[in-house]
Amino acid sequence: MLIIDRFEGDQAVIEFDSVTFDIPRSALPEEAEAGDIISINLEKNKSISRKNRINKLSEELFE
Fold first, then answer.
1. How far is CA 49 from the centre of its chain?
2. Which one, of 46, 11, 40, lies nearest residue 27 by Cα?
3. pLDDT digits (tens, 9 = 90+) for 8-40
4. Residue 16 pairs with which residues in a beta bridge?
5. CA–CA separation, 50 vs 2, rounded Å?
6. Which of 24, 25, 20 is nearest to 2 (CA)?
7. pLDDT digits (tens, 9 = 90+) for 34-60
């Protein structure tokens, strides 16, 4: 679970398993506040589709 610990200037301090790291505050929604939980979704189907589209474009480019 990723938790917004606090904001320091234009950085958000994120806590994950007792480790903290910074990300740009602009990477979060404007309404994000300290204490909010960040959820990350991994979407394999969309990743595969995107990779296939990029591969097809590369093949067309180098034909």
1. 19
2. 11
3. 999 999 999 999 999 999 999 999 999 999 998
4. 19
5. 26
6. 20
7. 999 999 888 888 888 888 889 888 888
String of b and e for 14-37 (b: at least 16 CB within 10 Å)? beeeeeeeeeebeebeeeeeeeee
> What whole-number distance in Å separates Cα of residue 44 and Cα of residue 26?
26
Asked if 46 contacts 30 with a C-beta cutoff of 8 angstroms, the reply is: no
Q: Rounding to the nearest 10 degrees, give the CA dihedral for residues 5, 37, 42, 50.
A: -80
Report the 10 Å Cβ neighbour count for 60.
8
Pairing mode, strands 11-16 and 2-8: antiparallel
The token pair at 44 is 């394999």
CA distance linking residue 50 with residue 57, whole number of Å: 11
Cβ 23 vs Cβ 12: under 8 Å: yes
For the record, the structure tokens of 55 come out as 């591969």
